[in-house]
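Retro notes, structure queue

What went well: the backlog is down to a handful. What didn't: a couple of records were mislabeled last round, so from now on we paste the full input next to the output in the thread. Example, using Spermatogenesis-defective protein 39 homolog from Bubo bubo:
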Amino acid sequence: GGHRGLPSRPPRSRGSISNLIRTVVPSPCTTLHLLLLKESKRAVNSLRDIVDDDDDDDLERVSWSGEPVGSISWSIKETASSSTSSLEGRDSGLQKGSSSYAALPKQVSSYSLSSLFKGELCLSLSALSDTGVKNYAPELRRPKAEYKDYSSDWSPKDTVRRMQRGKVCSLERFRSLQDKLVLLDEAVAGHDGNVITAVLIFLKRTLRREILFRELEVRQVALCHLIHFLKEAGEQKLLLDLLRFLDRTEEVALSQYREHLNIQDVEKRREFLKGCIGLPFSAEDTSHIQDHYTLLERQIIIEANDRHLETAGQSEVFRKYPRKASILNMPLVTTLFYSCFYHYTEAEGTFSSPTNLKKTFKIPDKQYVLTALAARAKLRAWDDVDALFTTKNWLGYTKKKAPIGFHRVVEILQRNNAPVQVLQEYVRLVEDVETRLNLATKYKCHDVVIETYKDLKDRIQLTAYKCKVERGSAEEEKINSILNNMQIRWKN
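Corresponding output:
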């Protein structure tokens, strides 16, 4: 059979980004919408409000290669796959209470303002493929000669039941407005997304749009299906007319804003985004549009300058590490990585300066440090890494401080093949003793393991570790010296 339908619960009242999410995916769960809204807002500028260090993996997933990680094309698979699995988990409780659900896939919004930096999520409705209309409305495609068990006397309820079983039946016999609306109500009551959309296609073809819009306004489930269908089918004009009729001005603005994805010329896209700033968005969404325009404008300047430097061979970093992709249309976090890689020492007054980007887009310290660390470690610029974590107090004393936790610093450095001497320095700074020992043992930072067992006065563990170092090495001599030290009061 086909995909199954949504429970016939109307969505909640309209809002800006959350309303966009709701109308694209007619979800039955208001709590789910709020969760998606929080995720969407966290994704704006690709900067998440991080609470745990466990979330840091997503923030450092950025590099500069032939396939630019973090680009819009790259983000489609990355974000859509994680969103789908996450959403399926959240919907598991809902599915227990119903045996039939919609053809519309349970994914996050196919478009939201957060995608302007994170990347565009692409929903692909299986029933809207090349053969999609057949799947939705097979009765519109087959000649009467092929009809089996054909009858013109099927009631709306019987017609819907037959469609649910995949049987062929004609909708043309429903000519009056009342009959068509009864048919639509029966389709919605059947909770079968394919049938609902098939009936909507029939009504769209046979009713004047003013009448169709008026009747759908009081049928929220059917309305959500039609909005989603129009988005997937690319019927932008009809979609905008429908949203204007519903007085959803912010959604009209969002739909118009989405058109920037179809503009390939970067200068034309910049001008289009500049015009979008004046559309009737909420105050918060207007700031997101402004950020998108500012970022693209900044990228155009950086790209032109760097292309000139690379061509002229005037920069050592470009000669040693040639660019493999353009910075244009990249998300903010990728642009920051690029800036930390190629323009790390530039003054804040230049557009390509990392500190300028941090200040302009209000990048949190945690995100900035992660990105800068990944970029400078890839270049093996260990002095820059050291400076990134060195702070000085008012007395002039220096100490190391990391907003992301030194255990994360160690892991990032190790992935970039940092030498043991560099690793050991940061392993020592891990406060939790068990974590420090695990990291030191894992990455063969022998001195740290030896010093930690000495501080713990653990003679047994230190003696056992002696078997793990090379015989005759400096580490073995160090262990023997500590074990023979009569001034240490061992705990065991």
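Agreed that this is the format going forward. Reviewer comment attached to the example: The first helix runs from residue 17 to 24.
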